[in-house]
Amino acid sequence: MEILTIIISSSPYGDERIWNALRLAEALCCSNVKMEVNIFLIGDAVNAAKKGQRPPKGFYNLEKMLTDLVRAGENVNVCHTCMNLRGLTEQDLVGGTKMGTITGLSKWVIKSQKVVSF
């Protein structure tokens, strides 16, 4: 099975980059394409994995999108160092997401046939 790693560094809700990255992940994991998708949130993107989000009515909800991807069996890691810099703890994260490291990301990149950055 092919492996895709998606690295996301954009801040949530500032633009549509995270939304588009997660839509791509959903399209790949939930279609007839048999591809393993790894998602690594780094920099300001770690805030997308904070539980308890309340986006305006009718606006996309990144917490729900991440939860759906985790339920579909995809790996979602959140940079531990970036979390610390922003005062986030593991208890702040959306269920099923995990704290990750650059070393873990490097292993994903080595194993992946494709890597995309948003």
Provide structural commentary.
The chain is an alpha/beta fold and about 120 residues long. It has one domain: Hypothetical Protein Ychn, Chain: A (3-Layer(aba) Sandwich). The chain has helices at about 15-30, 60-70, 80-85, 100-110; strands at about 1-10, 35-40, 75-80, 100, 115. The protein has a 5-stranded parallel beta sheet, sandwiched between helices. Helix 3 links the parallel strand 3 and strand 4 (about 100). The longest helix is centred in the first third of the chain and has 13 residues, at about 15-30. It starts with a strand and ends with a strand. The mean pLDDT is about 95.
Low-confidence stretches: none
Total tally of structural domains:
1
Structural class: alpha/beta
CATH class: Alpha Beta
Using the coordinates shown, work out and report the CATH topology: Hypothetical Protein Ychn, Chain: A
Strand order of the largest sheet: 4-3-2-1-5
> Total strand count, please?
5
State the CATH superfamily name.
DsrEFH-like
Alpha-carbon distance between the termini?
Answer: 23 Å
Gyration radius, rounded: 13 Å
The dominant shape is globular
| Proportion of strand residues | 15-25%
On the 0-100 scale, what is the average pLDDT? 94
